[in-house]
Amino acid sequence: MGVKPAEEYLFLIFVTPVGPYFKGGFSTNPYVIIRSFDRSAPLGTGMYKVGGNYAASLRANALAHEKGYASEFYLDAKEKKYVDECGAANFFAIKGNTYVTPKSTSILPSITNDSLMQLARDLGMEVERRPIPEEELSTFEEAGACGTAAVISPISYLDDMETGQRYTFSADGKPGPVSTRLYNLLRNIQYGIEEDKHGWTTVVIE
Fold first, then answer.
1. Number of H helices, E strands in the chain
2. Mapping DSSP to helix (H, G, I), strand (E, B) and coil, where does residue 132 land?
3. Angstrom distance (rounded) from CA 43 to CA 202
4. Neighbouring-strand partners of residue 15
5. Measuring CA to CA, how many Å separate 35 from each of 28, 61, 98, 101, 114?
6. Which of 89, 107, 120, 162 could cross-link to 147 by cystine, CB 3.0-4.6 Å?
């Protein structure tokens, strides 16, 4: 018995109904930057769907909840200068007519984020996947976390506890118009209400 990559794997899929990722459903939530923990190291396993990535975020997530936030927010593990991920979800932001999302070797590639980027292009928006320095957060009009369970979880504001800086993305506490449009469009495609132009859905018949 030893530790090495397996030569054979058993691939399992569990299917179950789920509710909204956050109790409020599609509504804004506050996030907090936590520098005392890293979600994943550069060139580590962050870009793979492994259980250890979730385990690494549990203490930071508990700390965020204790302080009254919905979730923690990570900067890059190497320099603590660039946006990385929102807890267990990808980050995206809206600046004018541009959809912006981070590029990093420690971020898990998200099918939901890829889908939202395509829908943004369909709506005539520019899409940028690139490093995002923390100071650029103040220039975004909307921001959110995106992933399988939540689809989009809009961020109301993001606090940096070390500097006291607050980045506000929703002045009235409601999801922004672009996030709302993208959310509704993707959900409608998933439910067969909107036309699936990209062949994302598959009808499964017993």
1. 4, 8
2. coil
3. 34
4. none
5. 23, 12, 28, 20, 27
6. 89
Residue type, 190: Q
d(CA 193, CA 206): 22
Give CA 49 to chain center in angstroms. 14
> Using one digit for the tens of pLDDT, what is the confidence trace for 7-44?
898 988 888 887 777 777 899 999 999 999 988 888 88
Of the candidates 153, 150, 147, the residue with the CA atom closest to the CA atom of residue 111: 147
Least Cα distance to 186 among 176, 198, 174 occurs for 198
Cβ-contact 180, 172 below 8 angstroms: no
- Among residues 63, 71, 69, the alpha carbon closest in space to that of 36 is found at 63
Taking only the tens place, the pLDDT of each residue in 38-94 is 888 888 888 888 877 778 888 999 999 999 999 999 999 999 999 999 988 999 999
Q: How far apart are CA 64 and CA 72, in angstroms?
A: 5
The C-alpha atoms of residue 157 and residue 53 are separated, in whole angstroms, by 25
Q: Both tokens of residue 204?
A: 């499964």
For the chain, the residue count is 206
